[in-house]
Model the fold of this input.
Amino acid sequence: MTDIPSGTCNVVLGSRITEDSETYAAAASFSPHFADTLIDSIDFKSTDHILDIGCGNGIFTSRFAPQVGYVLEVDSSPSMIDAAKTRNYGSTSTDFRAVNCRLPEDDQEIMNSNWDEVASNAAFHWILRDPSTRISTLKAIFRSMKPGRVFFSEMCGHGNAPEKFTAFKFGLVNQ
Ligand SMILES: C[S@@+](CC[C@H](N)C(=O)[O-])C[C@H]1O[C@@H](n2cnc3c(N)ncnc32)[C@H](O)[C@@H]1O
Done:
């Protein structure tokens, strides 16, 4: 019998849940609500332009979108983007794109230096998984925003926090 390295099953199962919108909705509908308290702490303006990275099926986005002027929702999964398009964001203008955010510096629409906030829920533990692109990804997100604005992100599901804090500390020390 082939040995399965420790952690492999969780990663495979996790990928399937997070990339398919119907599986995600059935198995992890609680996940978009981890960030409710965080969203309530942000002072949104009706003119704000927000980039939501790893937007999934749009439930997290729909919690703050009605308070702002524009949201670009990006996700590597076309299935998630299709589901996000069906959501109600009030009168707020929205765009959607299926894009891998591990190399945001290559994407001119993301790198417009004009975001008031960059948002992300339950996605950066996937996006920062590859150590070779961690620092460049974090630096690119920093450069994509207006100076002094806010990047708010949640990904503290069981076991995610240590990886997140390691990646952010590494990015800050090496910026
Ligand atoms: C757990 S879901 C969270 C979705 C949504 N933010 C929410 O709160 O419900 C993680 C999302 O990250 C996306 N994702 C994973 N790796 C990605 C990458 N490299 N670039 C963009 N999106 C990615 C997945 O497709 C999935 O939709």
Remarks:
- The chain has eight helices and five strands.
- The longest strand covers residues 145-154.
